[in-house]
């Protein structure tokens, strides 16, 4: 019976690929990859040329039957650009479909940005809460962070460089001075680990570059970095602010007039109200 291999690939340094993973990639009849261009660089490094096909979050429905048909004829490897398929990466749908169709499914463990960052953070890794990528909308991020703020174990989350500062600002709002580690470009040439509070990280990362993993210390009763009491109020204020602006926008009120009216009504700074107005406009596009 053919086998679907879930293969972990390097998160940066190609030397981290295991010998077993290299052997499997050389032996399978097809490699289903998140991005074939990225995977071909890895395959070229290994000196092998198996057939490849794309399989990612935008095309998995269209590609599923074809990959299963290939699996009926021979072994297939599932890989993503970096790390383990299915962990904040595409692939879980294929794993379920292959298992339900009666094929063997095996994992070939490899590098993990989650455990690498947790080890580097210095926080206890006996248990942790993985949040993956936070929501893009500010109000949703604040709500997610508030929900996780009482976790006694470290929080691990992924973030893209262009959203890092916004996320750090929200972490400062909810967690205050609680300690965290910002792990950037793990295993790569410019690997960096920043340790401190969110406000300090904001000062440090003026122009963030590279993929980031954040590890936030778990809540401790005696710790001065416990969740801010104002975090919940912040979420409520943000909800009210956006609702007021949305209503004015639907009534056709101009941006300048809407911002001035809401700022006067709530006592919030005009620049904050204007930023919320801009975010509403982006979401409606």
List the helices and strands and how they pair.
Layout: E1 3-7, H1 19-27, E2 30-33, H2 36-46, E3 52-54, H3 60-73, E4 76-79, H4 92-100, E5 104-108, H5 113-121, E6 129-133, H6 138-148, E7 155-159, H7 164-175, E8 179-184, E9 192-197, H8 198-204, E10 212-216, H9 230-250, H10 255-266, H11 270-284
Parallel strand pairs: 1-4, 1-5, 2-3, 2-4, 6-7
Antiparallel strand pairs: 7-10, 8-9, 8-10
Helix pairs in contact: 3-4, 6-7, 6-9, 7-8, 9-10, 9-11, 10-11
Order of helices and strands: EHEHEHEHEHEHEHEEHEHHH
Strand order across the largest sheet: 3-2-4-1-5
Radius of gyration from CA coordinates: 23 Å
Euclidean distance between termini CA atoms: 49 Å
Structural class by secondary-structure content: alpha/beta
CATH class descriptor of the largest domain: Alpha Beta
Poorly predicted ranges = none
Strand-residue proportion: 15-25%
What summary fits the major beta sheet?
5 strands, parallel
CATH architecture of the largest domain: 3-Layer(aba) Sandwich
Average residue-wise pLDDT: 90
The tally of structural domains comes to: 3
CATH superfamily of the largest domain: Tetrapyrrole methylase, N-terminal domain
SS elements, strand count:
10
What's the helix count?
A: 11
- Share of helix, binned: 40-55%
User: Which of globular, elongated, flat, extended, rod-shaped describes the shape?
Assistant: globular
CATH topological fold name of the largest domain: Cobalt-precorrin-4 Transmethylase, domain 1
């Amino acid at each position: 019976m053919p086998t679907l291999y879930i293969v972990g690939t390097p998160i940066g340094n190609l030397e981290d690929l295991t010998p077993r993973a290299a052997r499997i990639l050389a032996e399978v009849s097809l490699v289903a990859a998140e991005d074939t261009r990225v995977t071909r660089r890895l395959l070229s490094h290994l000196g092998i040329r198996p057939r490849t096909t794309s399989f990612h979050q935008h095309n998995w429905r269209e590609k599923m039957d074809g990959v299963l048909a290939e699996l009926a004829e021979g072994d297939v490897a599932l890989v993503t650009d970096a790390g383990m398929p299915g962990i904040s990466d595409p692939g879980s749908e294929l794993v379920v479909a292959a298992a339900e169709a009666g094929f063997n499914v095996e994992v070939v463990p490899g590098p993990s940005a989650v455990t690498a960052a947790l080890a580097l953070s210095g926080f206890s890794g006996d248990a942790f809460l993985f949040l993956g990528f936070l929501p893009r909308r500010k109000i949703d991020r604040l709500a997610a962070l508030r929900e996780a703020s009482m976790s006694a174990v470290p929080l691990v989350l992924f973030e893209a460089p262009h959203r890092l500062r916004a996320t750090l600002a929200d972490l400062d709002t909810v967690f205050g001075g609680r300690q965290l580690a910002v792990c950037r470009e793990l295993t790569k040439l410019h690997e960096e680990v920043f340790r401190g509070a969110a406000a300090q990280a904001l000062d440090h990362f003026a122009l963030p570059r590279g993929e980031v993993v954040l590890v936030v210390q778990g809540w401790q009763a005696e710790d001065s970095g416990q969740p801010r009491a104002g975090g919940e109020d912040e979420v409520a204020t943000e909800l009210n602010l956006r609702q007021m602006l949305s209503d004015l926008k639907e009534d056709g009120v101009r941006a300048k007039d809407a911002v001035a009216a809401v700022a006067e009504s709530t006592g919030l700074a005009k620049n904050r109200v204007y930023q919320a107005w801009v975010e509403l406009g982006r979401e409606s596009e």
